[in-house]
Specification:
Blueprint lengths: L11 H9 L1 H16 L12 H7 L4 H21 L6 H45 L6 E2 L2 E8 L10 E8 L2 E9 L3 H19 L5 H17 L10 E9 L4 E7 L5 E4 L2 E4 L22 E4 L5 E5 L1 H4 L11 H8 L4 H15 L8 E7 L8
Antiparallel strand pairs: 1-2, 2-11, 3-4, 4-5, 5-6, 6-9, 7-8, 7-10, 10-11
Helix pairs in contact: 2-3, 2-4, 3-4, 4-5, 6-7
Length: about 375
């Protein structure tokens, strides 16, 4: 996830708007000429209102106001040449055009102001995303990693899902989690998990101790939150993937199990004793059991939040994750995440019901020695 800076001073939109302004100008000229040449019983002046309305669709309030003023001037000219400005009919037309032009200009001003505010919110959201969810390294030791995040709210950019990675002796430790709920509270709890994970990385704690540290951090954060929710919790998966070892070690705290992909076959890593989600209690190390699973070179490990498997199409059917993965048989993490992201959004019609986080990683086979 990278922040792309856009130049607000690009000249292309300006040239586009000022090219389109020929349309309302031509409309004003045409209505004026036709009204002046038409019989006295035919009044085309009311059509001038279309000029500022058309301008507001592509230009800002200043240009919209200028076109509105020009339309009013054209209406005054028509009135002057057709019986005088003081007639009640022409006065009513002029007044109506002034009112509508002012309203259209104010509407365009309000729309532009809202757009600027929305742009600022997006900028802050992207910055917060970079603080909370650092892009995972493409490489960590012998591992190749790819990740993606999709917020359920189109304008939010971030939500309550999380992931992070940190080096440990001989391998990489990863966490992926999902905070119950949405909004700022969920983002704050996700930040607490990621912060605790990063803060414990340099201590090189054993896996059980690291998970206990996360659990206590989340429990403390929820207990001291301004708006405490006694039902809040975080499902999480914490695992160590070793550079050379043929297995991974994992603690699952109520999170969907990861999947291992190889040659079109899919293996679900179900733990025998899942732990309770983070935040429900103040845990100790003994509350967690580390379980080992085979993970060989060339296999792909997929971590995901429940937003993936709970995505529905228009008929209400859940997203068939394992069927899709088996059909694709992707061996590259970047290609897998890109394809899964695109297919998920297409399946949901572009609008997800929940935040989604995905991480795929692999340990490439060692090159053969000749």
């Amino acid at each position: 996830m990278r922040v792309r800076h856009r130049r607000s001073g690009s000249g292309r939109p300006w040239r586009l708007s000022h090219g389109l302004v020929a349309l309302p100008l031509a409309l004003i000229a045409a209505v004026t000429v036709l009204d002046l040449t038409a019989p006295a019983t035919v009044h085309l002046g009311p059509f001038l209102v279309a000029a500022p309305a058309l301008t507001a669709s592509f230009a800002g309030p200043v240009l919209t106001g200028a076109i509105g003023a020009l339309a009013v001037a054209a209406q005054i000219l028509i009135a002057f040449l057709h019986g005088g400005v003081t007639t009640s009919n022409h006065q009513a037309q002029i007044a109506a055009l002034v009112v509508i032009s002012v309203l259209v200009t104010l509407f365009r001003y309000a729309r532009d102001r809202h757009r600027r505010q929305l742009s600022q919110v997006r900028t802050v959201a992207v910055a917060a995303q970079q603080v909370l969810l650092w892009p995972l390294p493409r490489r960590s030791g012998a591992l190749r990693i790819e990740s993606a995040y999709i917020a359920a709210e189109a304008e939010a950019e971030i939500g309550g899902d999380l992931y992070a990675a940190a080096p440990v002796p001989g391998g990489t430790r990863l966490v992926i989690g999902d905070v119950r709920g949405k909004g700022l509270t969920a983002i704050g709890e996700a930040a607490a998990v990621v912060g605790a994970f990063r803060g414990s990385a340099y201590q090189h704690l054993p896996l059980r101790a690291a998970v206990a540290h996360l659990g206590n951090a989340v429990h403390w954060n929820m207990a001291h939150a301004p708006e405490e929710d006694p039902e809040s919790f975080v499902t999480a998966l914490v695992l160590d993937v070793y550079d050379d070892g043929p297995c991974i070690e994992m603690v699952n705290c109520g999170h969907p199990p990861p999947l291992v992909l190889r040659d079109g076959e899919i293996r679900s890593l179900e733990v025998a004793e899942p732990a309770v989600p983070l935040g429900l209690t103040a845990p100790a190390e003994n509350d967690y059991k580390v379980e080992s699973f085979a993970f060989g070179p060339g296999e792909v490990l997929l971590l995901y939040t429940d937003g993936v498997i709970e995505t529905r199409d228009r008929s209400g059917a859940f997203y068939p994750l394992t069927d899709r993965l088996a059909a694709w048989n992707e061996t590259d993490p970047a290609a897998l995440i890109r394809r899964l992201r695109e297919d998920l959004l297409r399946y949901a019609g572009g609008n997800l019901g929940d935040d989604v986080a995905m991480v795929a990683l692999t340990r490439p086979p060692a090159p053969a020695h000749r």
